[in-house]
């Protein structure tokens, strides 16, 4: 299971005191407005606000970063890549911009570029759990099973026992790696533990895939139905194939 884009609060990065009039004409105002629209799923409006912030502060990495997030959410991957690239050009130590660009590269099937970006994010923050997990998934896609297991082991070593969501995601990732390696007992042990920590539609889908590969079609269908009802579109598509 993948960790998704990081969204950092601008207020946490900058503290400014402006009059109401000055605030309304500042790049911070427009970026804040864009974040508000984005939270409502109004990505076109968010992008217009982000663009206004960029016009007012063309060398501000944060504005490009947020517009990249909105471009990605709007399905405009190439534009998102351009803006993340601009953000890291302006701020070469912008960890989350590398990480998020890696996610977009992953979605585009550009796995080598995704690995490079996750690696850069890890270089900047050696305790970046999400980047290790996601790089492990990419290495799985590239059939680098040992590299994938190493990344997931590192991610797990950095997670506290109280971080149940993170641990559940990491266990789901490792279960998928073991499944691809044909190590079904280990895959099942991990996914059962992941579900015990946090019931998640994606984890039911993973368990369904393990059952399918083991030839247990009755349990496969039950888990795919749970996953489909939870919004996992791949599970719905797979069910349609099973019912044909």
Question: What characterizes the major β-sheet?
Answer: none
Helix/strand/pairing class, anyone? Answer: mainly alpha
Q: Rough shape?
A: globular
Strand fraction: under 5%
Q: Total number of helical segments?
A: 15
User: How many distinct beta strands?
Assistant: 0
Q: Low-confidence runs (pLDDT<50, min 5 residues)? A: 9-18
- Span from first to last CA? 28 Å
Radius of gyration, in angstroms, nearest whole number: 20 Å
The amount of helix comes to over 70%
List its salient traits.
244 residues; mainly alpha; 15 helices
Q: Could you walk me through the main structural features you see in this protein, from its secondary elements to its overall organization?
A:
- The chain has about 240 residues and is mainly α.
- Helix content is about 75%, strand content about 0%.
- The protein starts with 9 loop residues before the first helix and ends with a helix.
- It has helices spanning about 10-15, 20-25, 25-40, 45-55, 60-75, 75-90, 95-105, 110-125, 130-140, 145-155, 165-180, 185-195, 200-215, 215-230, 235-244.
- The radius of gyration is 20 Å and the shape is globular.
- The protein has 15 helices and no strands.
């Amino acid at each position: 299971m993948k960790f998704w884009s990081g969204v950092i609060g601008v207020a946490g990065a900058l503290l400014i005191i402006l009059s109401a009039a000055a605030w309304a004409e500042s790049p911070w105002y427009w970026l804040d407005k864009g974040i508000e629209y984005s939270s409502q799923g109004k990505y076109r409006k968010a992008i217009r606000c982000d663009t206004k912030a960029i016009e007012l502060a063309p060398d501000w990495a944060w504005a490009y970063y947020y517009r990249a997030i909105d471009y990605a959410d709007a399905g405009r991957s190439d534009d998102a890549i351009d803006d993340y690239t601009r953000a890291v050009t302006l701020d070469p130590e912008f960890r989350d911009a590398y990480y998020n660009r890696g996610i977009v590269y992953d979605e585009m099937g550009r796995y080598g570029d995704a690995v490079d970006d996750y690696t850069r994010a890890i270089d900047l923050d050696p305790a970046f759990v999400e980047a290790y997990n996601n790089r492990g998934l990419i290495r799985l896609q590239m059939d680098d099973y040992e590299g994938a297991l190493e990344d997931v082991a590192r991610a797990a070593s950095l997670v506290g026992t109280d971080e149940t969501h993170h641990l559940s995601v990491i266990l789901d990732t490792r279960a998928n790696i073991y499944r691809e390696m044909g190590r079904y007992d280990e895959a099942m042990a991990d996914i059962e533990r992941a579900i015990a920590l946090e019931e998640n539609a994606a984890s039911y889908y993973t368990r369904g895939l393990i059952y399918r590969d083991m030839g247990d079609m009755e349990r496969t269908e039950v888990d795919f139905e749970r996953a489909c009802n939870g919004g996992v579109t791949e599970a719905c598509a797979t069910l349609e194939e099973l019912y044909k």
